[in-house]
Design goal:
Elements lengths: L1 H5 L20 E5 L7 H8 L3 H6 L1 E6 L1 H11 L4 E5 L11 E6 L15 H19 L5 E4 L4 H6 L7 H9 L8 E6 L11 E5 L6 H7 L2 H19 L4 E5 L14 H15 L3 E6 L1 H9 L5 E4 L2 H12 L4 E5 L5 E4 L16 H15 L1
Parallel strand pairs: 1-2, 1-5, 2-4, 3-4, 5-12, 7-10, 8-9, 8-10
Antiparallel strand pairs: 6-7, 6-11, 11-12
């Protein structure tokens, strides 16, 4: 587990550093995720790392017995204590406070299987954490992965955490919130503040993504990226805007979305003072970003942004939801049903997600 953290230790160096006393460490709610997946075990595997407790006071939203099973898997001897409210949480490297917020039937979910009971439990954990964050009872949320099909089987039509939390927070209009993947700088790559990738369209079929693409959507995501990175850097970021079509449409030969949608949005953003460049073919813009030319990239669809960033740093990437009145971070990977409950899951992504949530809470 220590080795996992060593990969992600380079942090948000551009943000002001603050000394954390025990009193001022933020209270971070960790949601358990899908019970059949790696969520419980990556929380349990990350928990004994003392740096986590230097950064924040974590507590778990889920089922105490599932967390005990995850602790037993890691054989760390950490005690799981059931609590009734966040105010009761007394986290330590050897103690996990867990607020029970799901039904007991989740205990019967087989590992590595898609199950509506797991979907419901994951939903309940996120919904509880969201309400607590909105009420100010926790300072931020860090989510373990849920399975979208299990969520759907449980009767919840949200395509993922981002949309579910937006509804809980009362944020409507897709252009007002977004998923961002963030990668801290390391090994001399990326700019001094790392790289943020914001997605114009997200968990939809490609055919729907094309229909959802609009000037307002592109401009809205550019604004969110600009706001986040300005807060991070203390100055306006350099943002590369992806093209949609091969070779940026080749002057309209391979499609006109660049000229008709993306470029007008860029021009409006520039008029607002944003440092936007594009549209640039994605095979070029991410190479340039890796070399430090851009602090952020606006991707037109899910895989355009995800594939590139995960190739740069799969187990260091952190998912941050932008545009909400609460702080939410997450690992950048899924439920990994193929390896769940075998103690093979990486904990580095969860540790990094907790760190970023802690920094955003006090920054």
């Amino acid at each position: 587990m220590v080795g996992d953290y060593d990969m992600v230790q380079i942090g948000l160096s551009a943000m002001p550093q603050r000394t954390r006393s025990k009193r001022k460490r933020p209270l971070i709610a960790l949601t358990m995720g899908d019970a059949a997946g790696v969520g419980p075990e990556i929380i349990a595997g990350s928990w004994p790392e003392t740096v986590v407790h230097d950064w924040c006071r974590p507590l778990v939203m889920g089922h105490p017995e599932l967390m005990r099973r995850a602790v037993a898997l890691w054989q760390t001897g950490v005690e799981v204590v059931e609590i009734q409210s966040p105010a009761e949480a007394r986290p330590e490297p050897g103690v996990i406070p867990c607020l029970r917020c799901c039904r007991d039937d989740v205990l019967d979910v087989p590992p590595r299987m898609i199950d509506p009971r797991a979907g419901q439990a994951a939903f309940d954990a996120v919904a509880t954490a969201g309400r607590l964050a909105m009420a100010g009872e926790v300072d931020a949320i860090t989510t373990a992965p849920l399975h979208k099909k299990a969520l759907r089987q449980a009767g919840h039509l949200h395509p993922g955490h981002t949309e579910l939390l937006a509804e809980i927070c009362g944020v409507s209009g897709d252009e007002h919130f977004a998923m961002m993947l963030y990668l801290a700088p390391t090994d001399g790559t990326l700019g001094p503040a790392g790289l943020a990738v914001v997605h114009v369209t997200l968990h939809v079929a490609m055919a729907c993504a094309l229909q959802q693409l609009s000037k307002e959507a592109v401009l809205g995501r550019a604004r969110l990226a600009d706001h986040f990175m300005t807060r991070l850097m203390g100055s306006r970021p350099r943002i590369g805007v992806c093209a949609l079509n091969p070779h940026a449409g080749e002057g309209g030969l391979f499609g006109d979305e660049e000229q008709r949608v993306i470029l007008p949005a860029i021009e409006r953003g520039r008029a607002e003072g944003m440092r936007l460049d594009g549209p640039i073919s994605s095979d070029a813009v991410f190479l340039q970003a890796r070399e430090g030319r851009f602090d952020a990239v606006v991707a037109m669809y899910h895989d355009q942004g995800h594939i590139a960033l995960k190739l740069m740093g799969m187990h260091r990437a952190v998912n941050v939801t932008l545009g909400l009145p609460i702080i939410r971070t997450s690992v950048a990977h899924g439920t990994a049903l193929d390896i769940a409950w075998t103690r093979r899951a990486e904990t580095g992504g969860m540790i990094e997600a907790i760190r970023i949530a802690s920094r955003l809470s006090v920054g």
